[in-house]
Amino acid sequence: MTSPVVKSAITKRFQRFALFGYVGLLLLMPLWLFVLAPRDDYSNGFVFAVYILPLLLPLKGIIQDKPYTYAWANFVVMIYFIHGLTLLWVAQDELGYVLLELLFATSMFIGCTYYARHRGQELGLKIRKLKDDLADEKAAHSQSAADAEDEKQA
Fold it and tell me: Which parts pass through the membrane (predicted)?
């Protein structure tokens, strides 16, 4: 039985940064949108589906500490960047909530990005580069063309 790969201090720091942002958004968004400043123009179901549900998608992978989940959670956090940056212009009366949202989204984005990178390196996970895939494909194609040529000559 192999021992689990120990996290370095920098990896742990980025994970805490990511979790600070994630849990912050997970607490802020429902509190803000349902309790502190409810949206009268939208149904609760719509607000839940658009602003809360996306945060729940990476929950299982984050709990299971999967670097891949941290990486793709950055796509989810873009919703909150867009929301926060838009509200900076149109909802100045909610500036405190907006700044908190942007703080948490920034923390989550930076933390998830670098946690996935460092933890992936620690675990030996690699994402192949496109140029490597193309080189392999070209080599395979060249080999099959050479094999076909050899068959014609035989």
Answer: 17-36, 42-59, 71-91, 97-116
* Dist. CA 75–CA 109, nearest whole Å: 9
Residue 43 maps to a domain: yes
Measure Cα distances from 121 to 105, 108, 129, 131, 132 in Å: 24, 20, 15, 20, 19
CA distance 38 to 94: 12
Q: How many domains does the chain have?
A: 1
Tokens describing residue 16: 């805490």
Cβ pair 18, 108 in contact under 8 A: yes
Q: What's the CA gap between 55 and 19, in Å, rounded? A: 12
**CA separation for the pair 126, 93 (Å, rounded):** 46
Which residue range forms the structural domain that includes residue 36? 9-126
